[in-house]
Amino acid sequence: MISRAWLIPILPLAASLVILFFGREREDSPLPFVGIAAIGASLWIALRILFDVALGTLALPYENDWSWFSFAADLKGHPFILDMRAGVLVDGAAAAMLAVVCLVSLLVQVYSLGYMRGDAKFKRYFAYMSFFTASMLGLVVSNNLLVTFGCWELVGVSSYLLIGFWFEREAPAYAAKKAFITTKLGDLGFFLALLLTFLYAGSFNIVRVKDVVEMGYMPPFVVTLIGLGLLSGAAGKSAQAPLFIWLPDAMEGPTPVSALIHAATMVAAGIYLVARCYFVFAASPLAMETVAWAGLVTAFLAATMALVPYDIKRVLAFSTVSQLGFMMCALGVGGYTAGLFHLTTHAFFKALLFLCAGSVIHAVHTNDMRSMGGLSKRMPLTFLTMVVGAAAISGIPPLAGFYSKDLILEKVFEHSPAMFGVLALTACLTAFYTFRMLFLTFWGDGRNNERVSRAEESQAVMTIPLLILAALSLVSGWALEHAWAASPGAAGPGAFASLVGPGVAAAEHGATGAARHVNPTVLAASVTAGACCFIALAYSLYCGPDLGAAERLKARFLPVFKLLENRWGFDAFFLALVDIADRVADLAKWVDTEVIDKVFVDGWGVLTRIAAEISHLFDALFVDQAVDGCGYLSRDWVGAGLRGLIARGQVQEYLLYLAVGVSLFAIMK
Amino acid sequence: MELPLLSLITFIPLAGALAVLCLPKDLRRAIEGVSLAAAAVPFALSAWLYFAFDRSTAAMQFVERHGWISSSAVRIDYYLGVDGLSAPLVMLTALMSLVALIASLGIKERFKEYAFWFLILEVGMLGVFESLDFFLFYVFWEITLVPMYFLIGIWGGPQKEYAAIKFFLYTLTGSVFMLLGILAMYFKATPHTFDMLELMKIHGALSFKFQALVFLAFYFGFAVKVPAFPFHTWLPLAHVEAPTAISVILAAVLLKMGVYGIMRVSYPMLPLGFEWFLPYLVVIAVINIVYGALCAMAQNDMKKMVAYSSINHMGYCLLAIAGVTATGFSGAAFQMVNHGIITGALFLLVGVIYDRAHTRDIGAFGGLATKVPVYAGLMSLACFASLGLPGMAGFVSEFLCFLGAFPRWKIYTAISVLGILTTAAFFLRMLEKVFLGPLNNRWADLTDMNARELVSLVPLAVLMVVLGIWPRLALDMMNATMVNLAGLFK
Question: B369 — contact with chain A (CB < 8 Å)?
């Protein structure tokens, strides 16, 4: 089955083209099923690969590639024709990721059948979805960094299309552009990293680049630069500080799109890239530390920002940013497995939370949680599944988030207790804002209003994906940690590590040997207890029939709330940057038309004309006047004088002159 | 005797032009038929050229050489040939001419003269890329000038006379300097010759001072065409005033003559002068890229925006050439082809909306995507191709340009990367303002693209994607030549 790994991204790609170009736009168009079938087939292949690995019949990593194109290149000044090859490279991390992406995408697409029903662009929506998934899958399997970058950009474009799907309104159009440009800003770093990689490694093949890096053929300075470049790209896509500004706005897209972006496709890409190129970071302590701090800062800032909004999707958006920070931080402190583990479990519970939110929004037609409340009775399935999701993200044992978050905190503690402190606080804040959202939405019957009383549970096509995701959020943490034991290759706890461990990227970054040791149970118990306390706090503030307590708190700490609502000023900062860019552009335009064109180019023209006028004047005043002067001279002076001399009316004289003339002519031959 | 393929490609449009001249102007259909045929046959032959082209050699192919003017004093040959640098450009010219002519069918007045001048223009452009004799090269180079003058000056916009004369004088000034360079080379060679391939071999005997001076003379001629900063200001004006199809030709083919000249003449014939000029060339390239993109961002006129984006994109070519690597040369050569296709398409698309709305003001539209979905789709595709989206032609060539320039000019290349971001910014802003958001009711009865427009645009759109996914279609043709070019002075 592994030999068909290349089909995994190709099938959804083909499906997206079929959906886009065939058939008519109809509300009951059957074409979405093409996309669902394609992603189903991809999922089947991905699961078979995982299954084969679990049985031990397949050894990863697997690589296979084909010639893509050839171009003229130079090696130490000698030009030659280089064959650019592209193909698939499946290691444990990629195998896990493929399954997660396919699974989440499949569920989201099924859910969308219900959510998007009746939309005027029903068919197009599914074409974009398939394309989005295909780009992400291509990014995951590619063995060539250039192709990875290509898919990376295509992910960006798909998100542009989907965030701006309802482009008839201003806000989605603006949000789409903002997402694309912001991520593109980060991509510049990725782009430069690619140039550096090729310069020093002479290849984009990940395995070959890894060899070059690990053999030490690259100067450390260059490795660090490449690492920082990759991080910059990852920060854009995975919404790390300070480039996370696009993600909250991206909520303007349809909610299932948000689920896909936040769980499996777009934001996972950055984390995955760092994991895929882990060897670069492993070779550069500075880059590694930067990753850790970027993750830490992001996790904390985003968690604080999630405390204040009343828009349900915005809370979830900030929570994604925060969770991505956890993953990034884990990777940065050497927790390769921990980061990927959290990426996997997070995909399940975040998709679940978003789809639940979508279900709620579908029922009450608003995003504002103040207009909700008391929905638990009207939408029991959504309620129950969302509780599972909330508990999972808050790290309540034994749900999925507990295992992965616990692993991250453990790693971070080994690295630095101070970072652990911040991250543990962030974990508690996570519990607080998640349950704040839950309480606002489903509790508080007293806030009942018309919207809520008309709300109904969503149809089965939407709730079944919720149930599946809830089940996964319940068990995936435990299963991935333990069930792998069935495989001959690995036994006992830490089974996920044995899957992703033999990755191409790196084995566990092993600087932890001499580090502090801590009893994991104590750690887990204390963080969980902290989270529970914060849940209780959220209950006391937001569960009641009115929001009086919360409002009083807000009034008391108004500046803090304002700061958080303004997202710590990051948006303002980037808007100022855009403003500056616009001014510079206007200046450039002015210089171009008024200086370069008017002064230099037209100036030459004017100078030429002046020179022409001067020569004309010279011509008229001197040359022509001199000619005329000669004429006057000969007529009025010489002529008149001569005439006065000879024209005296004497015929004999005239005859004499004539005779002299004739004889002169006669002498001359 | 072998079929004189290049001569056929070049002179069938001339025959067509003369035939058009003989037709009475009332027979519009016949004029259209003849001129289309005169553009289509060269295109078909260039497709043949594509398949018959030997990809394994860097030598000139399809060579035709006959004495033209020979006396004891001078010897001028009719000498044509193509290699991996010029063959793709010949194909590009044949394709874009056909496409532009199809797009011109909507022209209402004086179509006969239009077709005549258009076909003459095609002869000149094709000849420039094929000539291997400097005299012939110069003749073809100048032939492109006169038709362009009339095409802009008669069928152009409100300021057409001014734009036409500015274009004419500016490029003429440039080519006068080029003529000086040609004569300098001619007299320096012993025996005196206009044979460009021979002239590439004498650089060992040329002093540095001579090379630097002659380089500057040629550079001025080429830089005006590219157009390289600060000789670029004729371009936005000419583009804005020229009729759609002529903008297409201008961007797709005429600008390429400048870059082609640098790669065919300046670099191989005057290596010392080239090397001396490199630090300036790379700065000019960076200015073209960043400044061009910034200027584009400040425009409100769609056509002007696309025109400035051309300056930005030709900057990538210059940057790549300044890298003096095989990758860079490939990138520049491929970027020329891709820019021709993509920017040609963009100008066609701007023309489509202008024909309907009679305005190109970006701020005047809004929400058109619901009204004209096909148009919006094609425009988005072209914009994304132009901003270098992977999977589309522009990405591969831009990337090769950067890759080729990077080893030598790390900092400059890093600065140039900003151009990518700015390009994305202004294209997306344009898409947002024109197509997205609520529909501006002024355009409630706008019609989508008609058959003629689709016929001219869809092939370009297909090419953009095909060349992006399968770049070997073009790169394989170029590789041997570029390897040879980069190895000339190693």
Answer: yes
Q: Does B234 touch chain A (CB under 8 A)?
A: yes
CB-based contact A172:A160 (threshold 8 Å): no
In this structure, of A192-196, A495-499, B230-234, the range with the lowest mean pLDDT score is A495-499
Is A79 within 8 Å of B436 when comparing Cβ atoms?
no
> What pLDDT sits at residue B64?
92
Judged by CB atoms closer than 8 Å, whether chains meet at B329 and A168 is answered as no
Q: What is the pLDDT of residue B148?
A: 93
Q: Which residues contact B485 (CB under 8 A, 6 or more apart)?
A: B58, B85, B263, B267, B268, B326, B329
Torsions phi, psi of A184, nearest 5? -65, -35
Residue with tokens 């990755």: A503
Q: How many angstroms separate the Cα of A599 from the Cα of each of A111, A592, A641, B177, B230?
A: 63, 10, 57, 22, 12
- Using a CB-CB cut-off of 8 Å, the residues of chain B touching A593 are 233
Q: What is the DSSP letter of A81?
A: E
- Note whether ipTM > 0.90 here: yes
B432, A199: Cβ pair inside 8 Å? Answer: no
Kindly state whether B414 is in contact with chain A, defined as any CB-CB distance less than 8 angstroms: yes
Residue with tokens 């709620």: A360
CB count in 10 Å sphere of residue A325: 27
Q: Where are the domains of chain B?
A: 279-490
- CA A524 to the chain's CA centroid: 33
What's the CA angle centered on B100, arms B99 and B101, to 5 degrees?
Answer: 90
Dihedral pair phi/psi, residue B67, rounded to 5°: -65, 140
Q: Is B439 at the interface with chain A, CB within 8 A?
A: yes
Closest CA relative to residue B481, chosen from B332, B342, B274: B332
Say yes or no: B397 contacts chain A, CB-CB below 8 A: no
Annotate A496-545 with DSSP letters as a single string.
Answer: HHHHHTT-SS-S---TTTTS----HHHHHHHHHHHHHHHHHHHHHHHSSS
The two structure tokens encoding residue B378: 């094609």
d(CA B168, CA A605): 13
SS (H, E, C) chain B: CCCCHHHHHHHHHHHHHHHHHHCCCCCHHHHHHHHHHHHHHHHHHHHHHHHHCCCCCCCCEEEEEEEEEECCCCEEEEEEEECCCHHHHHHHHHHHHHHHHHHHCCCCCCHHHHHHHHHHHHHHHHHHHHECEHHHHHHHHHHCHHHHHHHHHHHCCCCHHHHHHHHHHHHHHHHHHHHHHHHHHHHHCCCCCCEHHHHCCCHHHCCHHHHHHHHHHHHHHHHHHCCCCCCCCHHHHHHHHCCHHHHHHHHHHHHHHHHHHHHHHHHHHCHHHHHHHHHHHHHHHHHHHHHHHHHHHCCCEHHHHHHHHHHHHHHHHHHHHHCCCHHHHHHHHHHHHHHHHHHHHHHHHHHHHHHHHCCCEHHHCCCHHHHCHHHHHHHHHHHHHHCCCCCCHHHHHHHHHHHHHCCCCHHHHHHHHHHHHHHHHHHHHHHHHHHCCCCCHHHCCCCCCCHHHHHHHHHHHHHHHHHHHCCHHHHHHHHHHHHHHHHCCC
pTM for the structure as a whole = 0.91
Closest residue of chain A to B374, computed from CA coordinates: A21
d(CA B265, CA A129): 50
10-residue mean pLDDT profile of chain B (490 residues): values are: 86 94 89 93 94 91 89 86 94 95 89 93 95 94 92 89 90 91 90 89 90 94 90 90 92 94 93 94 95 93 94 95 93 95 95 90 89 92 93 92 93 93 93 90 87 92 94 92 88
> Can you tell me the distance from the alpha carbon of A532 to that of A549, in angstroms, rounded to the nearest whole number?
20
Pick the range with the lowest mean pLDDT from A487-491, A538-542, B100-104. A487-491
